[in-house]
């Protein structure tokens, strides 16, 4: 895969072997002192693995299933990325600022890699920026807070979203009437989220995300990399995947 050099996209920075967007790498320092609250929920995912989906489900749960309450802000403000930082973008995602006004069930998700050793298991460390190098996201994030492992479950979730919503409800110790869960299934479908400005990132200024090149929410299809990559890229991916996953007992399906 050729790297497209774009001056607005400085080269990735490696943090503990993980390639990160330069600005995200810079944001990691202050995060070392992040203290999770017992009711924080950290969503730990790989890129393109359903982060937005799980975020919307969680916020809907915390809003009692009321979609209109989820219209209060775009998803990246309601469920901020801990490590997000970019020049010129107001930090709707700055955790400390957000916390001042946060409800007791503010969700703090995403891309917190707590891989490996126990030292790294005590605080946010790195954002995974390429498909699955290294260990899988853990299902625990330290002594406080909770984590939801979203990524590897994407395929089964797509097949039975209601069951997955029920699992998330159980995980956060909530319950909602069945008809509310049914409504949530509808509102969090890919089709609905793709046209919802509060989930589809269309509120992000064009200079940061140009939807005419690609909408943030594209197809909602598992395994679409196969059609996106060239034959050579697919081959290279398969070799790399086999190498990195050697010895891993988990088996993943990439197609429904
Ligand atoms: P595409 O938009 O490329 O199809 P992330 O939020 O981690 O970036 O993951 C995005 C991917 O999650 C989407 O990729 C899609 O495959 C899947 N996805 C997102 N929202 C979804 C939804 N509501 N229902 C089903 N799949 C969804």
> What is the mean predicted local confidence, pLDDT?
76
Residue share in helix: 25-40%
What's the structural domain tally? 1
Here the CATH topology equals: Rossmann fold
Residue ranges: pLDDT <50 for 5 or more in a row?
Answer: 92-144
Short recap of the structure:
About 35% of the residues lie in helices and about 5% in strands.
Notable features of this structure?
256 residues, mainly alpha, Rossmann fold, two-stranded antiparallel ribbon, two-stranded parallel sheet, 5% strand, binds adenosine-3'-5'-diphosphate, Sulfotransferase, sulfotransferase activity, P-loop_NTPase
Q: What do these coordinates show?
A:
- The protein is mostly helical and 256 residues long.
- The chain has one domain: P-loop containing nucleotide triphosphate hydrolases (Rossmann fold).
- It is 34% helix and 5% strand.
- The protein has 11 helices and 4 strands.
- The protein has helices at residues 22-31, 51-62, 67-70, 75-78, 95-100, 154-159, 161-171, 178-187, 190-195, 225-228, 231-245, and strands at residues 13-15, 18-20, 41-44, 146-149.
- It has a two-stranded antiparallel sheet. The protein has a two-stranded parallel sheet with strand order 3-4.
- It is globular, with a radius of gyration of 18 Å.
- Adenosine-3'-5'-diphosphate binds at residues 45, 47-53, 158, 188-190, 193, 217-221.
